[in-house]
Each structure stands twice: as C-alpha cells, then as structure tokens.
C-alpha cells in the first residue's frame, strides 16, 4: 500500500492545563481535501500550526509521504524540503503579508529561495495568472489591495513553493460572501490542476460542504466525529456536530434553542 | 503596534498635531541649524576665536550683530561655528546608541531565551546608572575632549534604544507574516533582517530624533559644567558657561542667545521625532 | 438618484414594520455622501427606515457603504465628507444637531456595537469602569445608579457579577461582545446600530449573541439596524432587509420575500454565491469582477458590468426603485426585475 500524502497520529499539545490538542489522528490521501471544523478554541489552529511546523507537539507525529517532520529541521536543505511538503494560508489577509513588500517581491523572494538560478519573472506571471490577479497587481503593496486580492496573493505565495499539502486556516473567514465564493472556486480549480491536498480549517459548515471530501469535527482538542463530508452532514452522529449544523443561520432558525443545546451539551460533560 | 518611545517628562507634552504650524516650524528650524553647521566656516562673519579685548562686552552693532562676549569674541560667529561641535556630539551619541542598542534589542527580542535574559539584565544595570554621572566619570578619567562624554552618553542611552527595539521586535515577531515566511522556508535570521528590522526601523528612528535633542541638552550641560569640550572650542554649552560672568556684569546677551538656541533646537528635534512616531503609529493602526 | 419621488411626504414617516404613532427609530432619506477625491458619491440616495422595536438588516459586499451608513447615524463621518439628505433618529435630524444634541444622541438615543470588540475597548481598564464611563462622564447617572444599571444589564446579557472586576484580556470574544452589547444599552437607546457584531465570533457563539439581541429588543423596545454580509443570518433574524450595492439600495422588502423571491440580480447573485447547507453541492456561482471604483463615475446601473441580465438600457439609464406587483413594500432598482420573477432564491 502506498504511503498516504499526510498522516497525523496521536497529536497532543497542552498549554498549562489546557489540552489544546488531545490525541488527534487523521490521514489525507493524495489530492484529497480534509475539513477540520469546530468552534473557537477547539484546537483547530493549534493542530494546523503543529502540522506546518510552527509549533511542536508534546506527543504524536506528522508524516508526509512517510517522512517524519515532527523534529526540528536540521540545516537549510531540510528546511526547504519541509517547506515544499506543506504550505499554509493564514486567516487574516491583512496581517499575513509584510506591509512593506510588494506582491512581486513576495513571490520573487520565495522563488529565489526555492529555485535559485532561474529567472523568476515568467513563474511570477504564471502564479498571478493562476490566482486571477493581473500583472497590474504585481507592483502593488498589500495596503493597496482588497482583502480578496490579498488572500489571492497569499495563495500564490504558498503555491510558488509547489507544496504537496496546503493548510488553509480560516482562509475565507475574513472575506465577504461574493469574494469568498471566488476564492473557494479558485481553490477547487487549483486542486484540479495541481493535485495538491487541502487541510481546510473552518467553522463554517457551508464552506466545508462545498470544498472538502472528508471532515473531522473537533471539540475541546478531541475529534468527536469523522467521515465523508456528505455522510457526516447528512447524518451527524454526535450531538456536537448537530449543534454546529443547527447554528448555521437560515430562515426559521431558532437561536434560543442553540444556546440551550449548547448549555445542555456543556452540562453533559463530566467535570474533569 | 505599541508606541513606547522613551520620553522625558517636560518635553512629552510638546506634540505637534497633523502637519500643523508647530511641526513645520520645528522641521524648518532643524533644517536651518543643520545647514548652518554644515556651512559654518563660510558664513561665520568673524573668526570665532579672534579676541578683540577692547571690544569686550560690546552691545550688538552692525559689525557684531549679537555683540561681543567678555573675552572679546564675536557671539554670532561663535554661535555659528559652535553649531558644529554642538550637533556633532549628539550625532555621535545617537548613531552609536542606535546601532549598538538596536542590535542588542533586536537580538534579544528575536532570539528570546537566555540571551534575552542576559542582555536585558545587562542593559537594566546600565539603566540604573545615571548617564550624566557616567559622563562626568569618563571625562575625569580621560580628560578634556568630546570623545569621552559622547562614549559615556552613548552607553547611557543604549539601554533605552535596546528596550524599545526589543519590545517592537517582540510585537512584530507575533505577526502572521513572520510565521508565513518561516513556513516558506526562510531562515530566522533572514526574516528578521529583511522584514522585521525594516518594519520597526521608523519607530526607532523617531526615537533617535527625540534622543538627539536629549543628547544635545546633556552635552551642553556637561560643557556648561566645564567638562568635555576644551576651553577655547566654540560650543553652545561652553558659551553659556563663559557667559556666566558677563551676566554678572550686566551683559547677558552672550549667555542668553546660546541658551535660547539650545532650547529651541531640543524642542524642534523633539517635535519632529514625536511627529514621525505619531505618523508611524497612524499608519499601523 | 430619483428615489425621493417614491415617498409621498417629507415628514418623518412611521416605518412599515414599526409600531404606529411613534416616530421611526431611524429614518434616512435620500442620503448622499461624498468623500474628498472621489468621482462618485459613496452613498447615493440612500433611503432606509428602522421602526421602533424593529430589526432591519443591511447587507452588501465589502466597500458597498454599509459602515458609512451606520456611522452617519451617529454623525461619525470621515474628515472632508459632504452630505445631503436627512437622517432622523427618533424624530430628530442628526445632520443639523449642535454639539450638545449630538452628545445626547450618542450617549442616550442611539448606540453602536462594533465588529471587533477587542479593538473597541481599552485593555487596561476594568470592564466595570468601561461600562459606566460614558454615563458617568456625561452625568446621566450617579456612579451608584450607573453601577446598578451595569449589573442589571450584565445579568441580562448572561454574564456574572464578577465580570466588572475583570480586564478585557481575561474574557473570550463572545463574552466581550456581550459586554459591548451591555455597554450599548447603558443609555437605554431607542436605536442600536450593530456593525457586523458577530463576524469575529464562531457559529454557536453567534447564535447566542443573536438570541440575546432578540431578547433585549423585545424587552427594551430598541430598534436594531444589523449590518452584515451573511445573507443567511440576515434572513434568519430580520423583519426587513436592505441590500446595498455601490452606495445605493439595490433592493429592499420584508426579509422572507426578498430572500425567497429576489427581484434584483445582485441579491440573487449574492444568494447563489453563499455556500449554504441546503445549496446544491459543487461549484459556487461566484459574481465575477469587482464592485465599481470610487474614482470613476458609473453611468447607468452600477451593477451592469457584472450582471447576467444587463442590456443596452442598463448601461445608459440609471434604474429607479420600483415596487413589486402586489407587494408595494418590496422594491428593487433594476430595469429587468420581471426577468427574475418566479426564480426562487434559496436562502
Ligand atoms: N499559545 C497559547 N498559550 C496558551 N493557550 C493557548 C495557546 N494557543 C492556544 N491556546 C488554547 O488552546 C485552545 C485551542 O486553541 P486554538 O487556537 O487551536 O483554537 P481554534 O479552534 O483555532 O479557535 P479559533 O476559531 O478561535 O481560531 C484554546 O483553549 C486556546 O485558549
Ligand atoms: N475614511 C474614508 N476615507 C476614504 N474612503 C473611505 C473611508 N471610509 C470608507 N471609505 C470608502 O467608502 C466605501 C464604503 O465603505 P464602508 O462603508 O466601510 O463599506 P462596508 O461597511 O460595506 O464594508 C468603500 O469604497 C471605502 O473604501
Ligand atoms: S438594471 Fe440591468 S444591469 Fe442593473 S441589475 Fe438590472 S438587469 Fe442588471
Ligand atoms: Mg483558529
Ligand atoms: Mg464594514
């Protein structure tokens, strides 16, 4: 059997006495798209940070095509190889770009690091084109771009490395609906074209349904439910998943019932 | 970004709003003083050290626009040529304290850990020691000359700059764009030097400008005490010192004029620095 | 542009959904606002009412002018703006108020809740001080009365009595937004302006905050203008909605009717691009292109470059707001609304 693209086993991370991530295990097949959903504080971001290597795990491991990446990278070559395994798109497009660096310079820096000796200009044009930004945007500084355009730059920057896995942490949460739809479509196109795998973190179930094949539901650092996205959303097993689904506003929606259900769920938990 | 310029109580209130007249006047004055210092030998009407004893304590006249001091030297010429020494000293203090303090602060903030503790402890130690006292100590050991007080004040100013740079780096380090560069495979040193340092530089430069004023007044104070600048060198602080006796004889001009120039220069640098700091803060909001 | 002609009288009118015989909590008429160095007005003939005790949603994409509209109500305008039209809050014209009346408006009559509670609160002051500050400074209440009121409101928003002693950093986003709501209610306002109050919160917390706003509205009779770009949320909570595009009201009407039978292609496109739980799976129907630039004066319908139904007429003539057949409260500014009729939108 071939190695899965991304394999995460028994990940744990505590901050003081908060168990931010508690025995999290999942795999992402080649070209797959896995959603992680859960409310604020459920450990999604911490999981993502460990997976990309911005934080360390107390236990467990992260493997890409069988290669472990839990330990600190040693030396430049290993650091670059790690970067080509996994890239990340951050939540806030306003903060994830250096305010002083133009779009073109952002991409040039990355290309020069990963493909030294080749002329980056043609690839920059290609990347800008791929994310739907004209070459006109190349000279712009981040503050001259809209939120959607900045998020496109962040995606182009991640793609410049040609990663095997792209982690998106609430990457469309800061965008409004029409721009969000453009970015979600863009992400679907990129997956079709490049075969990159997505780890898609969000608390919006509509988005999960739209862009993922599989989903895991996290609560208080633990996975409470996982499966094919369509199945989980059609027949949620865990009360928490049902609560998340009921929380999505729609006509006839009863926010009081959600508050009550949330409190009931909280009371069900045996105090640790 | 938190703006944590080090300020001295009296001057902190002097802030120009927007591009108001106070800022423009201050910027203009700073430019004028710098220009005068650069062009001093050409624009000084007399040799600042030529003594015309017969003319001592003469009132302003067509030949001596600001009069003559007790030793018979032209006040205006001493003022103009003195601008050089008076600005050179603070410049040295600012350049040295910023480069060294900035480096210490950036390394401490970026690397954290034991290095941070060590550097922070050392700078705190210097912080506890009054700068002027240190300068007096240095001059008494190394004798006359500009170098000793400049080195002493640089050491005294270093911790302030270091602390500012450290706190700015700590805030900047948490910004997602830094994490983004790390994920891309850039080394920590690269990210720090190419992105973090340029991003904090404007605030540090604003602090520099404010510090320039403080260093000017500190060095003038030392000169006034007769320390540092050699006796005959034209220097604003020294002029005030030399003019003391003239005040007693009822001719205050040769002491009051340099005093006024010192105060105006300090205030102007302060206003300009604070204005830059506010501009940076506004942009980052 | 031509929308004033639609309205019969110039006196403050009771809002469609409001209680009779009380002036509307908010009544904006033909508001036009220009910012310096722009070719077109940022707000162009906005008409909007919020009845007493009514919930009204204002939706539209980023940059359409929602925030400017809500800030105008408190006359919090960027420097150099010029305004035309009238803005009445509880019967008083905001744009002609003097400083004292304006202070009264901001502390008593109307209050605002912002998107990011953490950015709107001083992290170094205790919650209690923050809550009572405005009424104490403006001498509306004695410190003791202010404290009592703060305690009562914190209880109403579901927070405990020890919260006033805490610092903002010690509260979660959801708790902090409740504090902001309590603070907004301190002066017992007739109008609450909520600018994306739940965008920074996750779905379950959002539901709790929305439930809370609903309760408080019922209890205190406050009119609520809810600014959001989440159409599902707007549909779920509001009595009426206004859909804004490029500084104009594209469509307005009762929430149920606007979301079930959109009459403006922009509303329809927004609904289609929302990834809902009941929407058809697969690719979203995104709206291509971008909203018009403020630096260029558009001719005709501002949505024309992105509209699937656009015709020659659309690029030459600005559409007026027209009511739907048999439903006078549901209006849309589109030359070809009839082409959309019968296409059910899925909210
Ligand atoms: N650096 C840290 N120090 C202390 N606690 C932390 C830290 N980072 C995360 N936590 C805690 O770990 C838990 C999980 O946090 P995480 O940021 O992963 O949540 P999340 O699901 O991403 O939430 P959100 O939707 O708000 O981003 C939370 O209880 C949080 O308070
Ligand atoms: N202070 C300002 N100066 C210049 N332009 C502004 C200012 N505030 C808002 N705008 C512009 O006005 C338009 C509407 O802004 P806003 O009301 O904030 O939109 P929304 O709330 O729908 O996101 C945008 O094009 C925005 O760029
Ligand atoms: S007026 Fe024309 S362009 Fe504008 S929305 Fe209607 S059909 Fe589209
Ligand atoms: Mg998160
Ligand atoms: Mg807004």
UniProtKB/TrEMBL annotation, chain A:
UniProt GO BP: peptide transport; transmembrane transport
Domain ABC transporter: 6-245
Keyword Signal: no
Domain of life: Bacteria
UniProt keyword terms in alphabetical order: ATP-binding, Nucleotide-binding, Transport
MF annotations from Gene Ontology: ATP binding; ATP hydrolysis activity
Signal peptide: none
Listed Pfam families: ABC_tran, oligo_HPY
CDD domains: ABC_NikE_OppD_transporters
SUPFAM superfamilies for the chain: P-loop containing nucleoside triphosphate hydrolases
PROSITE patterns: ABC_TRANSPORTER_1, ABC_TRANSPORTER_2
InterPro entries tied to this protein: AAA+_ATPase (IPR003593), ABC_transp_ATP-bind (IPR050319), ABC_transporter-like_ATP-bd (IPR003439), ABC_transporter-like_CS (IPR017871), Oligopep_ABC_C (IPR013563), P-loop_NTPase (IPR027417)
Similarity remark: Belongs to the ABC transporter superfamily.
Name used for this protein in its record: ABC transporter ATP-binding protein
Organism: Embleya hyalina
Taxonomic path: Bacteria, Bacillati, Actinomycetota, Actinomycetes, Kitasatosporales
Automatic annotation (TrEMBL), chain B:
Similarity section: Belongs to the binding-protein-dependent transport system permease family.
Transmembrane regions listed in the UniProt entry: 21-44, 87-110, 122-140, 146-165, 212-233, 253-273
Keyword Metal-binding: no
Membrane topology: Multi-pass membrane protein
GO biological process annotation, one example: transmembrane transport
Subcellular location: Cell membrane
Domain ABC transmembrane type-1: 83-272
Name of the featured protein: Peptide ABC transporter permease
Gene Ontology CC: one annotated term: plasma membrane
One Pfam family this sequence matches: BPD_transp_1
Species whose genome carries this gene: Embleya hyalina
Key words of the record: Cell membrane, Membrane, Transmembrane, Transmembrane helix, Transport
From TrEMBL, chain C:
Keywords from the named record: ATP-binding, Cell membrane, Membrane, Nucleotide-binding, Transport
Entry membrane topology: Peripheral membrane protein
UniProt domain ABC transporter: residue ranges: 26-271
Annotated CDD domains: ABC_NikE_OppD_transporters (cd03257)
GO (cellular component) term, any one: plasma membrane
A single GO BP: peptide transport
Subcellular location(s) of the protein: Cell membrane
Coiled coil segments of this chain: none
MF terms in GO: ATP binding; ATP hydrolysis activity
Signal peptide (from-to): none
Source organism superkingdom: Bacteria
Primary localization class, coarse: membrane
Residue span of region Disordered: 1-22, 318-347
Pfam families: ABC_tran, oligo_HPY
Family note: Belongs to the ABC transporter superfamily.
Name of the protein described by the UniProt record: ABC transporter ATP-binding protein
Organism listed in the record: Embleya hyalina
């Amino acid at each position: 059997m071939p190695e899965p693209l991304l394999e995460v086993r028994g990940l744990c991370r505590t901050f003081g006495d908060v168990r931010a991530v508690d025995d999290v295990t999942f795999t992402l097949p080649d070209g797959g798209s896995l959603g992680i959903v859960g409310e604020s504080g459920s450990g999604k971001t911490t999981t993502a940070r460990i997976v990309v290597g911005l934080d360390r795990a107390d236990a467990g491991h992260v493997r890409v095509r069988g290669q472990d990446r839990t330990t600190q990278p040693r030396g430049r070559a290993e650091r670059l190889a790690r970067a080509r395994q996994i890239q990340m798109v951050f939540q806030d497009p306003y903060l994830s770009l250096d305010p002083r660096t133009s779009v073109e310079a952002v991409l040039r820096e990355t290309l020069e690091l990963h493909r030294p000796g080749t002329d980056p200009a043609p690839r920059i044009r290609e990347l800008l084109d791929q994310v739907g930004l004209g070459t006109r945007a190349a000279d712009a500084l981040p503050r001259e771009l809209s939120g959607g355009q900045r998020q496109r730059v962040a995606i182009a920057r991640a793609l410049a490395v040609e990663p095997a896995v792209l982690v998106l942490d609430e990457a469309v949460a800061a965008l409004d609906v029409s721009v969000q739809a453009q970015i979600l479509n863009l992400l679907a196109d990129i997956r079709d074209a490049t075969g990159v795998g997505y780890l898609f973190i969000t608390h919006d179930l509509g988005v999960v349904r739209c862009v993922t094949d599989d989903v895991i539901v996290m609560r208080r650092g633990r996975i409470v439910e996982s499966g094919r996205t369509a199945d989980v959303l059609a027949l949620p097993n865990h009360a928490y998943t049902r609560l998340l689904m009921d929380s999505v506003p729609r006509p006839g929606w009863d926010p009081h019932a959600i508050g009550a259900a949330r409190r009931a769920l909280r009371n069900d938990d045996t105090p640790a | 970004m938190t703006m944590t310029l080090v300020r001295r109580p009296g001057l902190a209130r002097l802030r120009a709003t927007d591009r108001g007249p106070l800022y423009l006047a201050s910027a203009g004055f700073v430019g004028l003083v710098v220009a005068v210092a650069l062009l001093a030998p050409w624009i000084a009407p007399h040799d600042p050290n030529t003594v015309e004893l017969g003319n001592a304590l003469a009132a302003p006249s067509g030949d001596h626009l600001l009069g003559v001091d007790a030793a018979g030297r032209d006040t205006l010429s001493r003022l103009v040529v003195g601008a050089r020494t008076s600005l050179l000293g603070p410049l040295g203090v600012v350049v040295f304290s910023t480069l060294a303090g900035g480096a210490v602060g950036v390394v401490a903030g970026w690397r954290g850990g034991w290095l941070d503790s060590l550097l922070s402890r050392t700078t705190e130690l210097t912080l506890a020691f009054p700068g002027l006292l240190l300068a007096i100590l240095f001059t008494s050991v190394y004798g006359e000359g500009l170098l000793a007080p400049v080195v002493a004040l640089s050491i005294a100013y270093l911790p302030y700059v270091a602390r500012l740079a450290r706190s700015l780096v700590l805030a900047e380090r948490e910004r997602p764009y830094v994490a983004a560069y790390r994920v891309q495979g850039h080394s920590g040193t690269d990210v720090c030097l190419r992105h973090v340092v340029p991003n904090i530089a404007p605030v540090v430069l604003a602090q520099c400008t404010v510090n320039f004023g403080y260093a000017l007044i500190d060095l003038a104070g030392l000169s006034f005490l007769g320390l540092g600048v050699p006796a005959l060198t034209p220097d604003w602080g020294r002029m005030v010192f030399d003019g003391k006796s003239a005040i007693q004889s009822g001719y205050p001009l040769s002491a009051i004029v340099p005093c006024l120039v010192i105060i105006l220069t300090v205030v102007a640098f302060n206003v300009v620095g604070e204005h830059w700091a506010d501009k940076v803060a506004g942009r980052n909001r | 542009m031509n929308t004033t002609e639609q309205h019969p009288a110039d006196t403050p009118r009771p809002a469609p959904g409001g209680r009779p015989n009380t002036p509307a909590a908010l009544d904006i008429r033909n508001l036009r606002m220009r910012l310096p160095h722009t070719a077109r007005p940022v707000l162009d003939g906005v008409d909007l009412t919020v009845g007493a005790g009514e919930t009204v949603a204002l939706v539209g994409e980023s940059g359409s002018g929602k925030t400017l509209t809500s800030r105008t109500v408190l006359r919090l305008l960027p420097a150099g703006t010029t305004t035309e039209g009238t803005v009445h809050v509880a019967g008083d014209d905001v744009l002609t108020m003097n400083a004292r009346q304006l202070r009264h408006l901001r502390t008593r009559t109307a209050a605002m809740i912002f998107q990011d509670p953490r950015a709107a609160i001083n992290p170094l002051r205790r919650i209690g001080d923050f809550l009572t500050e405005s009424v104490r400074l403006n001498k509306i209440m004695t410190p003791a009365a202010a404290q009592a009121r703060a305690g009562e409101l914190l209880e109403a928003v579901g927070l405990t009595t020890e919260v006033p002693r805490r610092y903002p950093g010690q509260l979660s986003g959801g708790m902090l937004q409740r504090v902001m709501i309590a603070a907004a209610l301190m002066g017992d306002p007739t109008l609450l302006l909520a600018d994306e109050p739940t965008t920074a919160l996750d779905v379950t917390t959002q539901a709790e905050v929305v439930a809370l706003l609903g309760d408080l509205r019922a209890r205190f009779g406050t009119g609520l203008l809810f600014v959001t770009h989440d159409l599902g949320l707007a549909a779920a909570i509001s009595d009426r909605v206004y859909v804004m595009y490029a500084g104009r009201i594209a469509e307005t009407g009762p929430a149920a009717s606007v979301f079930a039978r959109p009459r403006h292609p922009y509303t329809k496109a927004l609904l289609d691009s929302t990834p809902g739980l009941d929407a058809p799976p697969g690719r979203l129907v995104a709206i291509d292109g971008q909203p018009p630039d403020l630096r260029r004066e558009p001719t005709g319908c501002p949505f024309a470059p992105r509209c699937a139904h656009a015709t020659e007429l659309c690029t030459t003539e600005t559409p007026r707001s027209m009511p739907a057949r048999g439903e006078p409260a549901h209006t849309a500014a589109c030359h070809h609304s009839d082409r959309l009729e019968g296409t059910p939108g899925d909210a």
